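Lecture 7 notes: from sequence to structure.
We start with the chain below.
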Amino acid sequence: MRKTRIVIFTNLFILLCLGTIMIYSSSYVYAQNKYNDGMFFLKKHIIFLFFGIIIMFWVMSFDYRILKDKAKPLLLLAFFALILVLFLGKEIGGAKRWFRWGFLSFQPSEFANM
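Predicted structure tokens for the same chain:
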């Protein structure tokens, strides 16, 4: 079990590093021209990466078996959010798929897929 976790965390770390390098290399020129800061998107990515890792460790410590009793209410909440996005969602590219609150956005279909 311990060896499996080490392999998973090693692969995760490699993917996070490669993704960060890709974000930096693909967005530097655009960010420099638009925001006068070549690292604009890299900084934003690192902030979200930091919070994502914190949430990942919190979820790992969470006992998922207690969700069995809450499965039906969560499913109803997901269906409600999918219907609500039709009325209150942000239209992007001709489709309403996102809730947007300031700089945060949420796609209810991601929650429904869990």
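Points to note: The chain has a mean pLDDT of 90. Residues 20 and 45 are 7 Å apart (CA to CA).
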